[in-house]
Amino acid sequence: MAIEGVQPSAARQLLLQHTLLPLISIHLTLNADALFQTECNDTLISTLLVLRPYGNNARYSVPNQSYRIANLQLITRTYGLFPVRFDAPLPELLTVHNLAEDKKGEIAPLFSISSLEQLLKHASANSRTDLYSDMFRKVLTSNRILLFDTLNHPVAHIFVVDYATDSVETVRQLLVEFRNFAFPRYFQISDVLFHAFVAFDSRIVAETEVRRFQEELRTALSVGSSALPMFLGVDSDPLKVRMSKLVDMTIQEQVQHLSLQHTAEDNESIHVPKLLDMTLRLKIYEFLSKVLIPYMEQKIRVWDDLVLLPKKSITGRLFSVSRKFFNNNNNDVTASGTSPNTFNHQDNYYYRSSPEQVIRKLADWSLMLKDFKYAYSTYDLIKKDYTNDKAWVYVASTQELCIISLLLAQTQPLASDTLPLIPDRNTLRKIRHDIIEPYMDNLTYTFKLRFNVKTYAIRSYLIVAELLLNMSSMFSIPWWWDDLIEGYFLKAATDIDAHLISSGAVSGPHVLRAIIYERIGYAKAIAYYVPLEAADLLQPVLKEGVCVQVPEEVEEGGYENSAKIMPQNDNCISGRTRFRKSAMWYLMALWEWRDLDNPHQVLRLLQNLKIRFNVDEVTKNWYDRQGMALESLKSFCLPANREQAS
Amino acid sequence: MSSYYFTIIGTRDNPLYELEFSSFKAPASLIPGESHFTAKVKELLPFIANSSLDLVEDSQWLTPNFNLGRIDSFGGIWVNAFVTQGNVKFILCYDNPNSNNSLDNGISSGGSTKYDESSMKHFFNDAYDLYVKALLNPFYGANDPLVSPDFDYKIKIVAKKYL
What we know:
A: 646 residues; alpha/beta; five-stranded parallel β-sheet; two-stranded antiparallel sheet; 11 strands; globular; B: 163 residues; alpha+beta; 4 helices; Longin-like_dom_sf (chain B); Sedlin (chain B); TRAPP_III_complex_Trs85 (chain A)
């Protein structure tokens, strides 16, 4: 009788696999594209589409995969996965998102709420599964290049070239084109790692020749490279691996994909030859573990030495204090943006080489390398500078990441087989009252009222609620966060409602509301106010639902009290669970699904009420009275029930 | 004008008695005491009362009083509770006329208005007296519905007096 829903730990993983990871932009030549199309036998695909799924190396791993990451204290930890995102080249991303929107200090919305609603409505039409993970993933996945965070600024730029047709000159040309692009002033091109994937037809070209080409690339252009043999055993092994095209697609991309439905039968997947699949996994693993991670580690060390430590030092502090108090006469310089090391109030950004922007990048990269504690302390440090400069959007974004890094640090396993320790009362009190509550109030005020971008606030509500839920269930301490979690989910739902109604997209029930109510129901259902060591007490209720205990058999001739009221099996945990509250929220979600005329979702969700209510038949209990909410839902489901039974 | 939903809930979450009414203190409507809950809210009220039992069971061990005060709210509906010695719960749900939150337009958190907690406490105490008297009836079994018209009439009198 388990309650179905996305596990809080899975939601934490989604966050790590879709937001807090390095972005790698892929720049390819037409010839390389053609090579991939020939090998995959599909003229409609691009190399980026093939490479994209391999960023998720939790799913597409190599045997005995391990990534060793050393932090600044030179403590090395090994991780089983290190996801990355492959995306289009930066100039393309910047062009698509229309930089003009961000130019006058205004921030464009992170995603379109009505598009998300449309997508989920489409997905729910025939789905019998929980859509929360889809929604959460879509909210998290964004390739928008933001001025106030560097999470979406590419860490590496990979050129994919064809050995047979492309030369060193081609790579040079691509490199020059990239370098000459008019990047925004907040983007630092010198931090990007350039690398090349040299694809070659292994049937014609020997690997030694490719090595020579790689050596030329290194000496002429200082670009490292990896050889990518293609057509390995293509005749002998016809096996193909099916990959989804929809991986890591943003909301806009997926809406576009839906509206441009091609005539092909299987439009949502590509078929990669088995040996190419193995090669790509291996090469990407090698690139990440031998090139990207060491590069990021080295950069972090350099920034820490050159920018962060001087700032923390006593002279650095004196300098910043003097700048704060004696910097009143150069407002005109700042406003015109001619002084690169100060905040540009007119266009609302820090210049790429300013210490604030570098430190922000240092914190973001530490987060990507899973050094959450260091990231938190860095965000906390830089937040003060942003506040002094009145760079409100930077403050809001940094506050969000302070909360995220703090909660991730608290729930990070100490070792691969050691769970983190439960924080003490004082720490929990400080986390809640001094960090989460004031920061969330502040950042949502900034996003909603100062910049009128609700979507950032909605994303923050959802992420923080999920991380709190994860912490709550991991340590079994729901009494610390239960009300906060419900509050943040509700605020997200309210903001979505307000937007959909004001934009005229939806006026009645909508899928997003149903999904969020369902999530609140799940959060309540797993809020066990029982200490971890007494978790066994929950088992009878989770196994059989709440029911009356059977009286012990009386010996023959003994007295039997027929009027005795037998206790229920939840007697010892009475008041320690929130199953009834959960049922209420599920009921609200069910109503939305019913009003959306979706019997499949109603039928699925009804099963989550089983702990408290009998949902399999219409009973004579109070909740099945004529005209009551549950009775109307059961009768709504009857046709679907019959259909499923048949 | 405030509307109220009063229910007595037995030890197995079964409602023993239910009453919907509106405040008699506010200007009279066409039918005095008629509740103004919408059809959607009416459908949900028993579930709101039921869902608050989790919090009643949690907070009943934190106070020596039978009256637990305001323990819950859901979409603009506030919930006050009272626990008897026999673990029967009295739940009073009432709407918040000053709040914009409504179950009809999605739920949000927040909203506040002043309610006289002491009058609710008096109402619960008097209702408890009536319940104990009903319980003393030898023909009444524990956890049975309270269907006596006399009990219903007296509860309405108490409601009129205090709410």
